[in-house]
Amino acid sequence: MNRLFGSSGPKAPKATLTSAIGNIDTRISSIDVKLAALNAELTGYQTKLTKMREGPGKTALKQKALKVLQRRKQYEAQRDQLQSQVWNMEQAQTMQDNLKNTMVTIDALQSTNKALRKEYGKVDVDRIERLQDEMADLLDVGNEIQESLARSYDIPEDVDEAELDAELEALGQEVELDRELAGMEGGSALPSFMQDEVPDFIDEPPSTTGKVKEVAG
C-alpha cells in the first residue's frame, strides 16, 4: 500500500554536530588501531633488516617495509584530516551553544523587563511625593509642638546675679529687724513676710492665752 500511494517510510533523524563528532571520533580510533599494527609490522621489518646481509632477500624485505611505511603515511594523513574536521565541528558546536545561552539570557531579560514594567506601573509616583510632603509637614508640626511644650514660663532668660544677691541680703536684714522688734514687743519671732495675715471680716485674732493657761493649770 505504501508503495502504491507513494508514501515513504519513517525518516531518519537529522544528524547533529554531536553525532557527527562521535562518528568521526570512531573512525579516528579505527585508524589508530591500524596505525599501531603498521608500526608493529615496521618494527619487525626493521629488526630483520638490521640482521640481514645485502642481497636479494634483504632488498625484497626492504620493499615490503617501504609499502607498509607508505600505508602508514596515508593513514596518518587521513587521521589528520578527520581531526581537523572534528576541531571545526567542535568550534561550530561551541558557537551554537553560546548562541543558545545568549538567547536564553535575552529571553530571561525580556521576561524580567516585562514583569518590572507591570509592577512599576502600579506605583503612583505623584502619590509617593504627596506622602513625603505630608510626612515632612507632620514632622514640622511635631517639632513645633515639642518646642512649645518645652517653653519655660515667667522665668527671665537673663538673670542678674547681683540683683539676686541684693534681694537676698535685703530679706536677711528684714528677718533680723523683725526678730529684734518681736523681742522688744514680745510678739512672734517670725518675719513679717512669713506671718499669716488676719482676714478683714474677723474683728479680733484668735487668742491662745486661755488655752495656754489651761494646759499650764
From TrEMBL:
Its keywords, alphabetically, are: Coiled coil
Plastid as a keyword of this entry, yes or no, is no
Lineage: superkingdom: Eukaryota
Q: Which chain positions lie within coiled-coil regions?
A: 58-148
The record's annotation in Pfam families points to:
Snf7
Task: Give the GO cellular component terms, alphabetically.
Answer: multivesicular body
In terms of Gene3D superfamilies, this protein maps to: 6.10.250.1710
Q: Does the keyword section mention Nucleotidyltransferase? A: no
Q: Give the span(s) annotated as Disordered.
A: 186-217
Q: Which InterPro entries match?
A: Snf7_fam (IPR005024)
**Example GO biological process term?**
late endosome to vacuole transport via multivesicular body sorting pathway
What family classification does the UniProt entry report for this protein?
A: Belongs to the SNF7 family.
Q: What is this protein called?
A: Snf7 family
Which species is the source of this protein?
A: Lasiosphaeria ovina
What are the leading ranks of the lineage? Eukaryota, Fungi, Dikarya, Ascomycota, Pezizomycotina
